Amino acid sequence: MRSLALLLITLTFLPFVSKANAQDGVPEVPEALQILADRGAQVRFLGNKHGMNGWISIFQGQEQYHYETPDGQGFVMGLLFDKDGKMVTIDQVRQLQAQNDGVLDALAMDKPSESLATVKTETNKEFEYKTPAEKMFSEIESSNYISFGSKDAPVIYSFMDPQCPHCHSFMKDLREGYLDKGLVQVRMIPVGFREETMAQAAYLLATPDPQIQWYDHLDEKKMLPAKNDVNTEGVQKNMMLMQSWKFNVTPMTVYLGKDGKVKIIRGRASNMADIVADLPS
After folding, report:
1. Among residues 184, 186, 131, which one has the least CA distance to residue 154?
2. In this structure, what CATH number is given to the domain that contains residue 47?
3. 93 and 130 share one domain
4. Contacts of 119 (CB under 8 A, 6+ apart)
5. How far apart are CA 46 and CA 51, in angstroms?
6. Residue-number span of the structural domain to which 59 is assigned
7. Domain count, the chain
8. pTM of this prediction?
9. What are phi and psi of 5, to 5 degrees?
10. One domain for residues 153 and 214
11. pLDDT tens-digit map of 226-269
């Protein structure tokens, strides 16, 4: 498995293929993988071997290999071997490498920060919400986000554009006064209002160390990559969520207060201490 990870570090992605833009000779992304793509995973076609279409997906630095059964009714995850015990998947990865000249930004790492198995998926279960605010908060909880701070701390959600200066200032306020002290957990929902920033937001969702990448970006140590061929479906879902609730600025922060009511702060919070005091313990 380690050899596969090393191969992937030098692999440049082919253009993302979805149900909406399947290319000649490349089948549509299977429904089960499309759910991962919607969450921000990078999905690429590996080819057909032994009658099975192969796919690679990368999310939060975790690479997985998927194979669709010939009848299209089954789906398995893992490495493919031939009858002699040769690992077919490695050959498929190498063939994908050979089709490209560039170098992949190191999304596939040896020690991923999150497994694909933990990615939330959509269900068909219907809920009855008492208020529009409850429905909005539930949808925000299901967005594609990156967590900062202690997992045991009270949570706030904030829509942020990677190049938004007010978002930068807000995150610096949080980092220095609250995140480092374990007083709050921020679930940053990356969005992008331009093609460049949408690609950077997608990169944050895909990289194995988004917290380090984001802090380096804030400290002006490193620019976030803006690759044109990155899958932005996870970010587009976040954008649609903003638009559906008529959120038109960043940062846009939402949290559930002690009184059980949903609170919304437009722009950089003027008094973060009041917000933290209003969070349930």
Report:
1. 184
2. 3.10.450.70
3. no
4. 36, 39, 41, 59
5. 13
6. 2-98
7. 2
8. 0.61
9. -60, -40
10. yes
11. 777 778 888 999 999 999 898 989 999 999 999 999 999 999 99
